[in-house]
Amino acid sequence: MDQTWLDPTDRSDQTEPGSLDPSDWPALRKLGHRMLDDMFDHLERRRTQPVWQKLPDASRKALHVPLPQTPTGAADVYETFRTHVVPYSVGNTHPGFMGWVHGGGTPLGMLAEMLAGGLNANLGGRDHAPIEIEREVIRWSAELLGLPAETSGLVVTGTSTANLIGVLAARRAALGPGVRRHGTNAARLVAYTSDRAHGCISRAMDIAGLGTQALRLVPVDTDHRMDLLALSDLIARDTAAGFKPFLIVGTAGTVDIGAIDDLNLIAHMARHAGAWFHVDGAFGAMAALSPHLRPLLAGIERADSVAFDFHKWMQVPYDAGCVLVRDPDRHLATFAQDAAYLKRTARGLAGGDPWPCDLGPELSRGFRALKVWMTWKVFGTERLGAMVEQSCEVAQALANRVDREPTLERAAPVALNIVCFRIRGMDEHDTQDIVANVQESGEAAPSTTVIDGRLTIRCALVNHRTRPEDANRTLNAILHAATRCPVPGGVKLR
Ligand SMILES: Cc1ncc(COP(=O)(O)O)c(C=O)c1O
Fold first, then answer.
1. Which residues line ligand 1 (CB under 6 A)?
2. What percent of the chain has a predicted confidence (pLDDT) above 70?
């Protein structure tokens, strides 16, 4: 291609009036290097800092200022960030963070975010390299989970969106093209998932216009896996009553304890019922990174669609989730739309059909895939798999210690990387207080959930930096907080 119009010595665009590029490039470059060094320092020393600390009133005040009308120097704005934001973030980069299900991120992922920001690519469509990176990530994900090579997919914000896309694809498959024009038109569609499924499945039913009542919550067995006899009964009863079972959602890693449904049997039952089989594998699907844990997911490869996150157990910085849809035509039929301003062409920048905007609800989309691609390439599946195994080993060691502590009782089996337990004799209010005290101490950050109707302390081992000694420290902090519990006759600990 003729590129004689490129003049490498031309710097005339540097201070264009109206441009937001710096008038002093060296100064911004210097500030940028400082930002990078500061953040590397922060991450390198993260272990020596509090896990979490409450945003002080003074900082909250400093962050609330009137709508900026005039410019402020970038160095001053950065100083506000450094002073009032950095120390008071969520805490999930710290090895002592064990609340909810949060990935720890990596310095490499941070660099990828910066590069993606620099490119500022819009991955809604058109023909360019960043979309090829996203397609590669989808191909690798399908291969990891054993889905066919032609599997379609998208890198999305997270599993909530990925589950919604799965529900919409199932709805389109059940009702045909008319549903996109006329809505569900009171079709009597019903879906099934376990009563331990994440709330975003119910929300997806709501957003899809199917109603949350059309989601049947199937009871679970003692291991928190969907009771398939109960599922079978419910399907039979609904069918007899004139409802159409259109979707069964299996969970690979329940949010409370990490239980994995019998995905093979659910796949079989879905096929028998003529229903779409979707798997919510938000964090659990990443067990596939380990050859030892992969068998736990048997049957996931039979799913019509799978939702999972890169930002949890794969440690890609927030946000990055994924949806895979086995049948690319059905995926496309769920979202593709004609619009004159998005016309595809055989040549030029408007090539590359189909575009990612044909596969989900968003048109403009950022280059999330880059940080996933770099993480996968730099660490490789083997190292990522070893890290996932390490989380499970730390969870097992923590569970063993809980079992040895006379004042503690385990609330659920450890299926993967989550340990749930209670302090004997402690009521809910005090348990909640103890967890909040530990969080506020800055030593550790466990969270809580409800199991068998009772509040339970929950430690999710997701962060790649967490070692057995971090889990021990968390437990010590909980036990210490329990001894200080102001309940008359509160727990007496050794
Ligand atoms: C099983 C399960 N499904 C869905 C979600 C929602 O994922 P996200 O927060 O990425 O939307 C979670 C979050 O923890 C989860 O554990």
1. 101, 158-160, 198, 200, 251, 253, 255, 280, 282-283, 309, 321
2. 95
Residue 168 near residue 334, CB atoms below 8 Å: yes
Find, among 133, 144, 131, 124, the residue nearest to 306 by Cα.
144
Quote the pLDDT of residue 492: 43
Pocket perturbation via mutation, ligand 1, pick of 92, 102, 159 by most ligand atoms within 8 A of CB:
159
Q: From the alpha carbon of 100, which atom of ligand 1 is closest?
A: 14
Is 407 in contact with 484 (CB distance < 8 Å)? no
Answer whether 445's CB lies under 8 Å from 91's CB. yes
Between CA 378 and CA 383 the distance in angstroms is 9
Tokens of 346: 């055989």
- Long-range contacts, stretch 332-340, CB < 8 angstroms, 24+ apart: 332/152, 332/358, 332/359, 333/172, 333/177, 334/165, 334/168, 334/169, 334/172, 334/359, 335/168, 335/359, 335/360, 335/361
d(Cα 163, Cα 159) in Å, to the nearest integer? 6
Nearest atom, ligand 1, residue 281 CA: 1
Using an 8 Å Cβ cutoff, are 365 and 124 in contact? yes
Which pLDDT tens digit goes with each residue over 77-104? 999 999 999 999 999 999 999 999 999 9
- Structural domains present in the chain: 46-89 (no CATH), 114-376 (3.40.640.10), 381-483 (3.90.1150.170)
Q: What is the DSSP letter of 66?
A: P
Atom of ligand 1 minimally distant from the CA of 158: 10
pTM: 0.95
